[in-house]
Amino acid sequence: MKTVFKGGVTAVALFAAYAVQADQEANLVINEDIEITVRADAPEHLENLSTIYSGWVFRSSETQALQMDDFENPGMIFVDDAIDAWNTVEGSEGESCASCHGAPEELAGVRAVYPKWNDEAEEVRTIAMQVNDCRTSQMGAEEWKYDGGDMINMEALIASVSRGMTVNVATDGPAQSMWEKGRDIYYTRFGQLDLSCANCHEDNYDNNIRADHLSQGQVNGFPTYRLKNAKLNGVHSRFRGCIRDTRAETYGVGTEEFIALELYVASRGNGLSVEGPSVRN
After folding, report:
1. β 28-30/34-36 pair status
2. Looking at the annotation, which residues are catalytic?
3. Are 98 and 87 contacting, i.e. CB atoms less than 8 angstroms apart?
4. Angle separating helix axes 176-186 and 256-268, nearest 10 degrees
């Protein structure tokens, strides 16, 4: 056991560096075809890491295996549901996703660069924001709930057609101020436990906190199917869970704070592959 925090709450911050049943030297190849980069040199803007790792590396061998075959990956069930939604005509304009975009595969590469700056809207947009803009402005349909099932399923479909592509989220230009806001949130301590994102996912990855084998908190695998709650989970819902675990009041999904945090955390994975929908504990 080791204590890693200085000047924090005395009753917390004990992490155990003991082995778990994970093959950390394994390589991820999906369907014996799609090669996924799960280790890469850290992007230049990360000063405290030399190598970045997908969360898949820190999971048990059994959990790793689930993601290696689409027939075994429970998240792919929701991708099938999203394909049906993709082809469904909704709204006053008589349009579907397919009407404009054709097959889902036409969006290959999209997941790798989001969140990203939208010139027309003059804002950083997540995939969920872009999907809802398409629904309202192009289809004349109602918005989906930001972290609702329909939205998360669609995000999983969009991620699935980019699997194996390299994450390359822009951090400069008009997106820079939001990126810096997200960086500040990442290093801010929250709650009664006085913890920041960095305390767990930068200072203590590969250690254990209680029964959880800490990863670097990369989001290249989202949406992710969690065995813990048996459903697909979005990035912002995961952020809420993490901040809640510090015993703090958390931001809401789709808020500017979480959009900024998603932008920053996504950029920490630049160089890894898109791998969603992934499987995690």
Report:
1. antiparallel
2. 242
3. yes
4. 90
